[in-house]
Amino acid sequence: MNRWGSKFQSGGPRYGGFGFPFFFDKKRLQALVLDEVIELHQRAVQGDKQAVKEAYSLVTQIRRPELPNHLVEAYYGSVMTLMGRDAIDPMERLDYVRQGLKSLDKAAQNEPDNVEIRILRGYVCCRLPEAFFHRTAMGVADFKYLIDRYQREPHIFSAKFYEQLLRDLASAERTLERNRKE
Fold first, then answer.
1. Residues with pLDDT less than 50, the chain
2. pTM for the whole thing?
3. How far is CA 15 from the centre of its chain?
């Protein structure tokens, strides 16, 4: 259920493929569907494989060159890495993750001060195996940016999330140190 009490339905030409009448403004429609992608993404991060597939289906529908949206690009990237997490074939896993990282980097490059994009990329980078992807340093940089931003603007997210970021930064820095020693 979304915040309006309904479930988005994919499909059908009557609804423009998104579950909404075709006359909706495309940017508004993209924002509405992104809300659903974000809800599914949260479930997907927790391990819900069906939510990964549903998020992928929706985010690929709203990721359009004619409607550039860096947050959509970032969620696309994160969902791609989750597709990689759930893929069985090792080469398919690698391809999904590489595509996802490319999209996350593109979104962060285009909108470097977007807190949500930096959170997504930071956590994706820190959860990938360092030995294969060498992305923990990027995650550390994103976490440091977020911590600095919070110290200047404490309203950007909760104090509880700030404390979690501090713990996750320390853990990521230990990972980097451990890999430097090996």
1. 1-17, 20, 23
2. 0.85
3. 26
How far is Cα 110 from Cα 98, in angstroms, rounded to an integer? 18
Q: 156: which DSSP letter?
A: S
Amino acid at 98: R
Cα–Cα distance measured from residue 19 to residue 33, given in angstroms and rounded to the nearest whole number: 9
CA distance 31 to 33: 6
Among 130, 54, 135, 127, which Cα is nearest to 102's? 135
Q: Three-class SS string for 92-155?
A: HHHHHHHHHHHHHHHHHHHCCCCHHHHHHHHHHHHHCCHHHHCCHHHHHHHHHHHHHHHHHCCC
